[in-house]
UniProtKB/TrEMBL annotation:
InterPro entries registered for this protein in UniProt: HXXEE
Cleavable signal peptide: none
Pfam family, any one: HXXEE
UniProt lineage: Bacteria, Bacillati, Bacillota, Bacilli, Bacillales
Keywords: Membrane, Transmembrane, Transmembrane helix
Name of this protein: HXXEE domain-containing protein
TM region positions: 6-25, 54-70, 77-96, 102-120, 132-152, 164-182
Length: 209
């Protein structure tokens, strides 16, 4: 478990590379909707690597700047909770739609989460940090948004999406964000956690209080 806790984001990047190679080789044989869902899956894996490995100081920004924690190395987010939350997001929320690619609302929810990431990383966090960049924003701009626009254009132009899909997909997205991100961080927080982030993962927020 310690190995996974330390290297889960690196494993994710390897998976992203593997999926990328698969798409390159099989591109013409894969239905468009499945290509887009695979690319969306790649986007979240790159996003998580950017947040927790390189440059990797999302944890410091989240704990030290957003929550003004006196223990930014482990509270409210810690390496154990970060691993659990992010693995569920990537390998359940983003990957399950590939098992049912024609169930549009199921794939739409992760796409909407990708747009939501811009609000968090591109606006909220940057305003808080008074910066133009924070870990995760690169993946949002380069992957999440273009893939999301492509996905939405595709489901509209092909007539795949219905009003019910928009309603259910949006509701599912909101519930997922609330449970996986908002409540997930609260349920798993532990001010006395023995799991601590590295100095690199805290970045310039190592001494914030």
């Amino acid at each position: 478990m310690d190995f996974l806790r330390k290297y889960w984001s690196d494993f994710g990047l390897l998976v992203a590379v593997g999926v990328g190679l698969y798409l390159m080789i099989q591109w013409s044989t894969i239905p468009v909707i499945e290509r887009l869902l695979w690319l969306s899956f790649v986007a979240i894996l790159v996003h998580q690597y950017e947040e927790y490995r390189w440059p990797g100081y999302f944890a410091g920004l989240f704990n030290g700047l957003i929550f003004k924690s006196s223990h930014p190395e482990r509270y409210p987010l810690n390496p154990h909770s970060a691993m659990i939350i992010n693995l569920v997001i990537a390998y359940v929320f983003y990957l399950v739609p590939l098992l049912f690619p024609t169930v549009v609302w199921l794939g739409l929810a992760p796409i909407l989460m990708g747009f939501f990431q811009f609000i968090w990383h591109g606006i909220f966090a940057n305003l808080k940090a008074k910066m133009l960049y924070n870990p995760g924003l690169f993946a949002v701009i380069v992957f999440h948004i273009p893939i999301g626009v492509w996905y939405i254009r595709h489901i509209i132009s092909t007539g795949m999406v219905t009003t019910s899909d928009w309603i259910i997909g949006t509701g599912y997205f909101i519930v997922a964000v609330y449970i996986l991100i908002v409540k997930g961080n609260m349920w798993l927080k532990n001010e006395n956690s023995r799991y601590t982030f590295t100095r690199q993962q805290l970045g310039p927020y190592v001494h914030k209080s």
